[in-house]
Amino acid sequence: MNQKRHTSPARRRDYHKSRSSTAPSLPKVDFDGARLFLQAGREKSLLRRHPWVFSGAVERLEGEAVSGDTVQVCDAQGGFLAWAAFNSQSQIITRVWSWQALDKIDADFFRRKIATAIAARKALKLDLHSNGMRLIHGESDALPGLIVDQYADVLVLQLGSAGAERWRDTIADVLQELCQPVCIYERSDSDGRELEGLPRRNEVLRGQLPETLSITENGIRIAVDVAAGQKTGFYLDQRDNRALVGELAEGREVLNCFCYTGGFSLYALRGGAQSVLSIDSSAEALQLAQRNVELNGFDAGRADWQDKDVFEALRKLRDQNRKFDLIVLDPPKFAPTAAFAEKAARAYKDINLLGFKLLRPGGILATFSCSGGISDDLFQKIIAGAALDAGIDAQIVHKLYATADHPVLLSFPEGAYLKGLVLRVAG
Ligand code: SAH
C-alpha cells in the first residue's frame, strides 16, 4: 500500500500531547488508502494513546478496506490520528500500529518495532535469568495482537488480530533475521482469534521443531511443549514470582494448586521444601511436571502429584484436616473481562478461603489472578473477604505482578492482567 505523506517538519512535533477543546485542528495527511473517520469527540481515547478503536466510535469509512489493511484513523474533521490495522469483523475495528504521520507500515516498520522490543529485554538484563522469555507483548510493545515467546532457540508466534495476521510472513522474516531461531512455531489458537474472525492455526511456520525443548529459568530446567502445551507452552509471566516462592519454601510443607508443568513446585523443591503436593486437572501437564523433576535431579520422593479438580481437592484436604506451611494458588483466568467479574470473584473467594483454612499458623499464601476483568483492588478485597470468613488475620508481605518481559504500557492499562499477593497468616 502506498502511503503518501505531505506533512511539513513543523507538523512532526507531537501535536497529540496537550490538546484541549480549543486546540487547533489536527493536520490532514494525504493517503491513497482507506480513511476511518471517528464521530466527533470519540478521538479522546486515541489522543491518550489508547491503541484500540471500537466500532461504535466510527462515523464512516472512506475508501475500501478489508480486514488486515492499514487505514488512516482521523477525527471528525479528517485530522490525522493514527495508522491502524482494520478489522471489519471485530468490535475493535482498528488497532493502532503508529501515531506518527510520517511512518509507513511496511517491513522496515516491523523490523524497527521488533528490534526495539528485543533491545528492551536486553537492556533489562532478562537474559541473565532465563533463555525463555516473552520478546513481544502485543499492545504493550506497540505491536497490537502480536505475541512472540522465546524458548531457547525456538520462537513461538501468536497472532491475535487481523493486522498481525496480515503481516505474518514479514514478521517471521524479521524474527528469523534478528534472532536466527531453529524454528518459528505458530500457536495462533487462542480464543481471541474467533472474536477477530480468524481461523485457528497450530503449526511450524519456519524451520523444524526439535523433538524435545527445554529452557533454563533461574537455573532450573523446564521442558516446554510448544505444540500441545497451554498458552505458547509455558507461563513465562510468573518467572520472578516462582523465584520468590522458591526462596520461602525451605523446610515447609508446600501445596501448589493449578501447578501446570510444575513451575512453582520445582522452585519449592530446589528451595528445600520438606514436601510439595501439586494439583492440576491436566494429566499431560502433570506428566511433563514429573519429567521436569527428573530433568533437574530433584528428589522425587518429596513431590506428590494429584490429577484433580482443585475446588474438590481443597475440600477433600480440608476434610482430611491436612495442613500446609506454604500454599500457592495460581488458577486459570476466571474473568477474561469485567463482565465475568462477579462469578469469578466467587471462585477466587472459594479457593482462597479454603487455602487460608489449610494453612498452619505463620504459614504463607501466594495467591494470584491472571484475570483482566479483576482489578488489583478488587482482588485484594476478595482475598480480605476470604480471610475474614476463614477467621484468619493475615498481612500482605509482597504485591506481585508479571515479570518485566510482560510490560504494561501506561496508556493501555488492559495490559496489566496478572496480580498476586503473598500473605503471611498470624502465628
Ligand atoms: N502456576 C503455573 C501456571 C498455572 S496455569 C506455572 O507457574 O507454570 C493454570 C493451570 O490450572 C493449568 O495448568 C490448568 O490445567 C489448571 N486448571 C484449570 N482449571 C483447573 C481446575 N478446576 N482444577 C485443577 N486445575 C485446573
Which short descriptors sum up this protein?
Transcription Regulator spoIIAA; binds S-adenosyl-L-homocysteine; 20 strands; Rossmann fold; 427 residues; Archaeosine Trna-guanine Transglycosylase, Chain: A, domain 4; 11 helices
Task: Please give a structural write-up.
The chain is of the alpha/beta class. It folds into three domains: 25-98, Archaeosine Trna-guanine Transglycosylase, Chain: A, domain 4 (Roll), CATH 2.30.130.10; 107-207, 2-Layer Sandwich (Transcription Regulator spoIIAA); 235-425, 3-Layer(aba) Sandwich (Rossmann fold). It is built from eleven helices and 20 strands. The chain has helices at residues 44-47, 107-123, 162-166, 168-179, 192-195, 239-248, 263-270, 283-295, 310-319, 341-358, 376-390; strands at residues 35-38, 52-54, 58-62, 70-74, 80-86, 92-98, 132-137, 146-151, 154-159, 183-188, 201-207, 214-217, 220-223, 253-257, 275-280, 303-307, 324-329, 359-369, 394-401, 419-425. The strands form four sheets. The protein has a seven-stranded mixed sheet with strand order 16-15-14-17-18-20-19, sandwiched between helices. It has a six-stranded mixed sheet with strand order 2-6-5-4-1-3. Helix 10 links the parallel strand 17 and strand 18. Helix 2 crosses helix 4, helix 6 (239-248) packs parallel to helix 7 and helix 10 (341-358) crosses helix 11. The model is unreliable at 1-18 (pLDDT under 50). It binds S-adenosyl-L-homocysteine. S-adenosyl-L-homocysteine is lined by residues 230, 235, 238, 242, 258-260, 263-264, 279-282, 285, 309-311, 330-332.
